[in-house]
Design brief:
binds 2-oxoglutaric acid, alpha+beta, 4-stranded mixed beta sheet, 6-stranded antiparallel beta sheet, 10 strands, single chain, 18% strand
Length: 269
């Protein structure tokens, strides 16, 4: 595990102090590559979404018997079949959070017009290693570039459970953005830049940043901010979503929209 306060890892900067200042939020996104907001969502609604997901995990035998449901303690080796990424129409409490007025109003204001959320929602139920380090553009690059990811912890997710980390400065790694970052995984280009966060800092610079996330928090970032989940070092599922938002008037990546989004052509998310 990376050590907090080291050359490699620091705390995310909270933006609650500028939450009402739209220009300052845009400036922060431009400079830092992310905006981290505590309690943007209603905590109780997020916890309701967590319960909804945990009940499904329990029903299909993924949770350790005898532990409180809210622990989300996983049975090692039992694959999770559902719930999973998709439109998540069977998870109304989750949709209430990620499509609700708090986040949509935020994006209407931040983007300066009517926003929409991409229909496909990435719901991650992680028991061990995360996906590799990447820019989202390689997955989401067929519509507007003015599109943002919101990563939402579904529950309290302390650092040891491996919440999202971003690489500070990576939104300005011009060579990487112009090369790896312009790829398209559905044309066979590379999905992940790297797996090892330390080696990445040694090679490209920057510093990782994360936080003890709490239900209600959200981190928002653009298509060219390197990020990854951390290793889950607990015996509990790490439950989170990544969902995407853009102006309704701008081109949408067709793979992820509609009642039944087609998703990736050559590989599964
Ligand atoms: O939650 C994770 O492990 C990765 C999330 C991610 O890749 C994203 O938000 O784009």
């Amino acid at each position: 595990m990376l050590k907090m306060g080291s050359k490699y890892l620091t705390e995310l900067r909270e933006s609650n102090d500028i939450l009402d200042d739209t220009e300052a939020l845009r400036e922060r996104m431009k400079n830092d590559g992310y905006i981290f907001i505590r309690n943007l969502h209603n905590r109780e609604e997020v916890l309701q979404a967590r319960t909804e997901i945990l009940e499904k995990l329990h029903e299909q035998g993924n949770l350790v018997e005898g532990r409180p449901l809210d622990d989300g303690a996983f049975k090692p080796g039992v694959p999770v079949r559902n719930p999973k990424s998709g439109t998540n129409h069977d998870l109304p409490s989750l949709l209430k959070v990620v499509e609700g007025p708090r986040i949509m109003d935020f994006f209407d204001r931040f983007l300066g017009g009517k926003s929409l959320t991409i229909a496909y929602k990435w719901l991650r139920i992680v028991s061990s290693k995360p996906a590799g380090i990447h820019y989202d553009n390689v997955y989401m690059g067929r519509g507007t570039k003015n599109i943002f990811t919101a990563w939402t912890p579904i529950g309290d997710l302390p650092i040891e459970i491996g919440p999202l980390a971003v690489c500070l400065g990576s939104n300005k790694f011009a060579d990487l953005i112009n090369d790896y970052g312009q790829g398209d995984v559905d044309k066979g280009d590379r999905a992940h830049l790297a797996q090892d966060p330390i080696a990445l800092v040694e090679e490209y610079g920057g510093q990782w940043a994360t936080a003890d996330f709490r239900a209600g928090d959200v981190i928002i970032f653009g298509m060219f901010t390197l990020h990854s989940g951390g290793n889950n070092q607990t015996d509990r599922f790490r439950i989170s979503t990544d969902t995407r938002y853009q102006l309704a008037s701008e081109p949408v990546d067709p793979r992820w929209m509609g009642a039944n989004p087609t998703g990736h052509e050559k590989r599964k998310a």
